[in-house]
Amino acid sequence: MSEREGWHHRPIRIVADRPHLTAREREVIILAGCGLTARGTGLALHITTNTVKVHRARALLALHATDMANALALAIVQNVITREELAEALEKRRVA
User: Is 62 in contact with 25 (CB distance < 8 Å)?
Assistant: First the structure.
C-alpha cells in the first residue's frame, strides 16, 4: 500500500541530549516509583493533586514516555534519576 492508501511511516525520534526535568518533576517521578498516587504525592510534597498531574504530564513529555512506569525507567536509563535516589526514597517511605 502507498501512503495515499493509509500506510504512514513514522520517523523514529532519537533524543541525543539528556532531558531536562525540574527538581519537582524529578520528585514526582521518584514518588510515583515509590508507588504513591497523584493524591499521595501531593500530600507528601504539600501541593495539590492537579499540580502533581501537571508535573507528571511535563515529565512524560520531556522524557517521551507513555506512562509513569515508562517515565521512571527512561529517567533511570538516561541518568536523570539515579537508582540510589530511588532506593533512598523507597527507604524513607518504608520507614515513615
Answer: yes
Domain chopping of the chain, boundaries: 22-95
The CATH architecture one would assign to domain 22-95 is Orthogonal Bundle (1.10)
Determine if the pTM surpasses 0.85: no
| SS3 at position 59 | helix
User: Taking the chain (96 residues) in consecutive chunks of 10 residues, what is each chunk's mean pLDDT?
Assistant: 53 62 96 95 97 97 95 94 93 82
C-alpha torsion sign, points 50, 52, 54, 57: negative
